[in-house]
Design brief:
Helix content is about 20%, strand content about 15%. The protein is of the alpha+beta class and about 110 residues long. It has 2 domains: about 1-50, no CATH class; about 50-110, no CATH class. The strands form 2 sheets. Strands 1-3 form a two-stranded antiparallel ribbon. About 0% of the residues are buried.
């Protein structure tokens, strides 16, 4: 969450949006102080209701290649769930220290 003065050119909400999306999060920009409380409650609810899933690629090549990730959600109860996940990653490489740019995507609603 960021509180900023839109007239201040040194503060860049676009950078915060990009960083949030890249890391699998979200950014919010309340325009009034009264909006901060409900936003904090929403963030707290997200934290209490999150799950972390891990996987291991069946491709064991350490070639530094770009690989896509796809997460499918099957909800028999048809609850309105939100999935935030990386869209891609670079495989580990034996010849380099790796790459830092990873894109993320947020998917909302039913599959």
């Amino acid at each position: 969450m960021s509180l900023y003065d839109p007239s201040n050119r040194d503060q860049k909400p676009r950078v915060l949006r990009r960083l949030s999306k890249t890391s699998g999060g979200e950014s919010v920009f309340p325009k009034e102080l009264e909006q901060v409380g409900p936003i904090c409650h929403s963030i707290a609810a997200d934290i209490r209701n999150q799950y972390l899933l891990a996987c291991r690629s069946s491709n064991t090549k350490r070639d530094g290649a770009f690989r896509q990730v796809r997460v499918l959600l099957d909800t028999p109860t048809k609850r309105n769930l939100v999935v935030r996940t990386r869209e891609c990653y670079f495989a580990p490489s034996d010849t380099s220290a790796g790459r830092a740019s990873i894109k993320n995507v947020e998917v909302t609603g039913e599959p």
